[in-house]
Amino acid sequence: MEDILDILITIQKLDDERNDTTSEIESIPAKIEHLEKEIMEANTALNEKTTRIQEIRKIYKIKEGDIAENENKLAKLNNQTFAVKTNEEYRAILNEIDFLKKENKKIEDEMINLLEEEEQLMNLIEKFKSETKDFISKKSGEIDNIKRHNEELIEYLAKLKADFDTNFGKLPNDIKEQYNRIKEVRGNAVCLIHDETCTGCFANLTPQFFNELKKRSELLLCGSCGRILVYADFDKKN
Length: 238
Ligand SMILES: [Zn+2]
What we know:
Helix Hairpins; rod-shaped; four-stranded mixed sheet
């Protein structure tokens, strides 16, 4: 019975380790996805700045065209002033000239703002490009590390399963069945005792029962949760 109890402790540890490893493996795709999203966002932010510079240049050209067009109109209107016949007509032309001049002044102000914005972006863009490149290479490195770690975990999990199978194979059939049955219901089948308490359900064990368990001469189950209880005096063993 001594051996069987030790095997039960071993397979429970292997089972716990398998669960932890499986959870870690399952958490990896979300981690990678998060990092890929960060990379994508960094690229988008850089693209937005580059696109804005191109956009500014395009808008600037359009505004240059608008000004030239207004200048043409102004020239024509100036010529017309020589040919007007009435005061009313003259005033109308002057109003229009005034409007176009104000319009051009407004466009020029907008162009100055665009130039300022372009200059600011141009000053920042090289630094921003290199920062983005560094950021992306750092995050890509993290993804590579996680993928490598994932491979290691998968290998480790296979080793745990092999160890588990080897040890599990040493158990008598009835105990195997019992282990699987309790595991199915409780998640874990074997509990160590700590401070005369079941570590599965934290029920206190009676002194008599505790003494029975200490003998390690038979397979005993927790009266509350039904898990296999094993007394292990680790202080003595180690
Ligand atoms: Zn219990």
